[in-house]
Protein 1
Amino acid sequence: NAGVTQTPKFRILKIGQSMTLQCAQDMNHNYMYWYRQDPGMGLKLIYYSVGAGITDKGEVPNGYNVSRSTTEDFPLRLELAAPSQTSVYFCASSYSREEQYFGPGTRLTVT
Amino acid sequence: DAKTTQPNSMESNEEEPVHLPCNHSTISGTDYIHWYRQLPSQGPEYVIHGLTSNVNNRMASLAIAEDRKSSTLILHRATLRDAAVYYCILRGDTSGTYKYIFGTGTRLKVLA
């Protein structure tokens, strides 16, 4: 199994641009999550999903959108990128509400 | 929201036990205590979790205080590969929503 994969690994955006961060998992997990991690800080939950077609906001959802059309994929959309969205983004998945498996992260810089 | 407090950093000698403390004085009855660790430039990795009783797995042990206001992650024999930031996390379920609150993390340095 590849586990949780994220693309791209790195990206530089200009202010006001949009992009989609891709996340996929091949473990047939129902639960998927998006986090952001600012330098020297812990992770903050952006959005999560408990199954295909079901998503909900986490702690810091403003400026982001998600969709979950399949069990495997959980893309994160940034509209009108701002410097405050410069961060490392981690996607995770879990079979239950317990142990989460994290992807390698996407490092995003907005200038 | 219930939060956790951890020391910023700790050091340990290789092959010695390590006790990483976490305070969570405002924990609610339904909050699970999770521990994850994060190696440099990687995503977090699950270590262990528990609710009330002490827990053991192949990676570590989790000791939970009787009043649940604190817990301790125990690495029985630290290796150089255990050098990471360790996060103590409360996973609550308030009003049907999921709340994952990461602490500040403890940076563990393992000395050869």
Protein 2
Amino acid sequence: GNSVTQMEGPVTLSEEAFLTINCTYTATGYPSLFWYVQYPGEGLQLLLKATKADDKGSNKGFEATYRKETTSFHLEKGSVQVSDSAVYFCALMGTGFQKLVFGTGTRLLVSP
Amino acid sequence: ETGVTQTPRHLVMGMTNKKSLKCEQHLGHNAMYWYKQSAKKPLELMFVYSLEERVENNSVPSRFSPECPNSSHLFLHLHTLQPEDSALYLCASSQDTTRTGGAFLHGYTFGSGTRLTVV
């Protein structure tokens, strides 16, 4: 079945450092791919998405490119801020019944 | 109001109590979901309703009882819970239609969750 694998956290960075959170997936067909973010005490918010191969999703300085050849959707940001500290979830949705499958989440801690 | 609203935000209940969590969406979506998020565990999908009909129940204990009276409202009725049921309960909604893309293109919209503590 469909699955998502994310790197283990926490990822600890200093402010203005470069961020990469790895995400790979297993799916049949051509799924949509998503990154969600969860700030402390809150629910999940959609951060960005890509619905076909080679699409690049971007939002708030974060980017991720849908790479079908490597089945990956890595999240990147050029310069992180303390306010980016949160848990980041990679997710996919296959065709057919539209069930969102999540990775385990990666906690990001950014220090001043 | 817009989006997905969950009430209450926090709930403390004893093991013999009966309580309900409420979720309301104002997005015109036709599918709603309950997730459980426990510390150090992956998100667990509990129930799925599409067009007000339950389409998935992931082996959830019977002490959790969902109700979807219409496409805008979803409840989770709780009774005789255990301390290990303490968690953040998240509601989500989507437009579940393969014909027009729907959730496939836009994903789910989540509420802020109810933090449940069972004492």
